[in-house]
Amino acid sequence: MQRDYVVCFLEDIYTPVERTLIDAGRQEAVLETRQIFQQAMRANFVEIVEEATGRKVKAFMSQNHFEPDMAAEIFVLEPDGDAGRPRAELACKASLTERDRAATLSS
Questions:
Q1: Residue 75 pairs with which residues in a beta bridge?
Q2: How many domains would you assign to the chain?
Q3: 8 A C-beta contact, residue 99 and residue 70
Q4: What is the reported pLDDT for 3?
Q5: What percent of the chain has pLDDT over 90?
Q6: CA 38 → CA 15, 34, 83, 87, distances in Å?
Q7: Does position 92 have pLDDT exceeding 90, yes or no?
Q8: Rounded to 5 degrees, what are φ and ψ at 55?
């Protein structure tokens, strides 16, 4: 977390099914499915970051990459009204891990 941004980098993100599709040249299908998932989970992810930081999220963006196998989750926060107030630290790996995402997909 820095100033008005929270950025989480995730590695080794693809499920075995997604890896099979990627190896078969179907990257676009994987990206489309992940974008649909991000839209469905947007409110949950924003809520987690807002609770952890004590600040309002004004934008959330997600980007996936194939080689290397990684993703970035980017949260833009509303300006902090009290610059002297200590800011909460966000433990990305505890809140937005791929295991959490995979568990959500399989339930």
A1: 6, 60
A2: 1
A3: no
A4: 86
A5: 70
A6: 15, 6, 31, 26
A7: no
A8: -130, 155
